[in-house]
Design goal:
Helices cover 13% and strands 39% of the residues. It has 459 residues and is mainly beta. The strands form eight sheets. A seven-stranded mixed beta sheet has the order 32-33-26-25-24-35-34. A five-stranded antiparallel beta sheet has the order 3-2-1-14-13.
């Protein structure tokens, strides 16, 4: 990736720039464009030191008004109404001849001169902010700070690989519906609900077949793992509480649009679900039955999870069907009146899985010129995508936990690995956009429906 070093030719009378410096990285951003310094800024005792020429230029000072005296070891910076003077090793800045104390001194480091960026910027009228996670300094007019982006989003490569898939078929499991209820206490009844959930978990309902709760769960007895719990009339019976499981199954089936053949309400209102959403069952007399009218096999998942002082009973319905693709457009310029006129000529491919969009790390690497490392260890796929000189994102397939610049980051959904294709490692698009300070816009009525908005302006 080639970056050009361009100094802005502005005076102190001009509008203040918006800029970002990152410790340990030669790349810096000025007014949403990427430049490269001769050397990287760095931190010492929590103070940010930047190379003096680049710092002055970014802050709107013409290079002809920056003076380095090798004998006196001083740096003078002049503008129309301001004269600043720094001395190597001295924590004093002179502003129009008036001394002010700083918390850091200029440094001559192996022939490179660095200034305390905060003090220089504030003397020139800039507001200064600190992005601790990324060790970045943000500079801008007071009240108009730049939008933080850890990536060089202004550099877009036209050479992005095409995502091709073996046979053109992308198998994927999609969740149709879900339902859950949280319980506190009521140990016996919730225990029995968990037993029933385990007995329906993994059941595959073929097309046009009918699911029967009583047939799948069977007789509620101690031999089948049940204990005594209370029924709706406060009678102790084996399996008391399984109606909670039939209730979440009923709600999931209704949410998926399945044909409900048999469902019974309780004699009395129950406290764990609104009236009309419960499903009472009793072996031999009352059942919950629904038909798979979707034309594809349905996988039933159910379980009981410990959640601190409570327990969560849940049921989900899933189907196998091909993943779909969508084009992702890139917006880097200001949107204007009609943003589609300003889209980049290059775009990305997204996979839509369970109503979420994913993009491949391979295409992101190509688009932004970032190094990508992928490997398999112990049957697990790992990926590391460089963000800039000192930062990276690391993630594991089928794991929501990612590491961004050595900080843990929780993804909304886990990345996944597609071995049969030119693009193999896929991450949630919205999470990725959030990491780089971008937005994702979706409009099903437009083509392309997805826009990765790197402009910093709302659509």
């Amino acid at each position: 990736m080639t970056l050009l070093l361009l100094f802005p030719q502005t005076s102190s009378a001009a509008a203040l720039n918006k800029a970002i410096f990152i410790a340990g990285d030669k790349n810096y951003v000025i007014n949403n464009a990427i430049h490269q310094a001769s050397t990287a800024p760095y931190l010492v005792d929590g103070r940010f030191l930047a190379p003096y020429k680049e710092a002055a230029a970014v802050l709107g000072i013409d290079e002809n008004n920056v003076f380095w005296d090798t004998n006196a070891r001083t740096i003078e910076i002049h503008s129309a109404n301001l004269e600043l003077k720094f001395t190597i090793g001295d924590k004093t800045i002179y502003v129009n001849g008036v001394p002010r104390s700083m918390d850091a001194a200029p440094v001559d480091r192996e022939g490179q001169v660095f200034l305390p960026l905060k003090w220089l910027a504030e003397a020139l009228g800039y507001a200064v902010d600190w992005e601790a996670r990324w060790q970045a300094v943000l500079l801008g007019p007071p009240g108009q700070m730049p939008l933080w982006r850890p990536l060089p989003t202004a550099l877009i490569s036209p050479n992005v690989r095409t995502c091709e898939f073996a046979g053109g078929f992308l198998p994927g499991v999609h969740r149709l519906s879900t339902s859950s209820v949280a319980f506190v206490g009521e140990y016996a009844n919730v225990f029995n609900a968990g037993v029933a959930a385990r007995q329906v978990d993994g059941y595959v309902l073929e097309p046009n077949r009918v699911f029967s709760f009583n047939r799948v769960v069977g007789v509620r007895s101690s031999a089948r793992g049940y204990i005594k719990g209370y029924d709706i009339l406060d009678n102790l019976t084996f399996g008391g509480g399984v109606c909670r499981t039939s209730t979440v199954l009923y709600q999931a089936a209704r949410g998926a649009g399945l044909e409900i053949i048999e469902r019974h309400p309780h004699y009395l209102p129950v406290h764990y679900t609104p009236v009309g959403t419960d499903a009472s069952v009793n072996y031999g007399t009352m059942d919950l039955r629904f038909r798979n009218n979707l034309g594809v096999p349905i996988l039933i998942k159910a379980g009981l999870e410990e959640r601190g002082n409570s327990r969560l009973l849940w049921a989900e319905l899933w189907v196998n069907k091909p993943l779909t693709t969508a084009r992702v457009a890139i917006l880097r310029k200001e949107p204007g009146d009609y943003y589609q006129d300003n889209l980049e000529p290059v775009g990305l491919t997204a996979l839509i899985w369970d109503d979420r969009s994913y993009v491949s790390l391979e295409q992101l690497s190509d688009l932004l010129g970032l190094p990508l490392e992928m490997e398999e260890r112990g049957g697990q796929q790992y990926a590391r995508l460089g963000l800039n000189g000192t930062q990276s994102m690391r993630c594991i397939a089928n794991n929501k936990n990612a590491v961004v610049n050595n900080h843990e980051f929780q993804l909304d959904s886990p990345p996944f690995w597609l071995p049969a294709g030119s693009c193999q490692f896929w991450v949630p698009l919205r999470n990725w956009a959030g990491m780089i300070g971008a937005d994702v816009n979706w409009n099903a009525h437009l083509e392309p429906p997805l826009v990765l908005n790197l402009s910093g302006c709302a659509l």
